[in-house]
Fold this protein.
Amino acid sequence: AGQFDPRQHRAPIAGQPTAVMVLGSPHLSGLPASFQPDSLTTLIDRLVAWKPDRIAIEGLSGPQCDHIRRYKDIYPADLADQYCFDPAAAQAAAGLDGPAATAAVAKRLAAWPQSPTAADRRRLALLFLAAGERPSALVQWLRLPTSERRAADGLTPALAQVLDETVTRRNENYLLAPVVAARLGHERVWMMDDHTADIIA
């Protein structure tokens, strides 16, 4: 039998089909101590050369983590601790809870300037942290010159330290996706995982 090509079994569509790349990798946190983040350079260069216009990662979004925390009595006790960034300090700094911070991110990006200032990026990083979206906060941090990666515009010294430490954290959601996104001029990454079914016995 000939090779199956699904494109031959679809009606014509307008425009080019969406191209999707799926990158599978082990969790970098499980690699031996000899692992060096610099070994990812060639992979990052190739991903940048492919020029994706959206980057999705395996991770729980801020809204889903907020949901799990609000309904903590029906979920495994350690679920949020295992998979979610704790946004409490960022929410206190921003004066916003998770849903309000998520809405503030959307509003800010909808009116995002062509040439954002360092203050714009620090403030957006804070909002992403308050929304529970640490990888996207890291995108903003990486888009800043090193000299501008500092506590200001609502970011406390402790939160700036969180972002500094995240830059080198051994996790593909920090060492890969935000780096590629920042180099491509993206403003965020998209977290695409789901643990809401963990209540099913």
In short: The CA atoms of residues 5 and 92 lie 53 Å apart. The chain has ten helices and two strands. The mean pLDDT is 93.
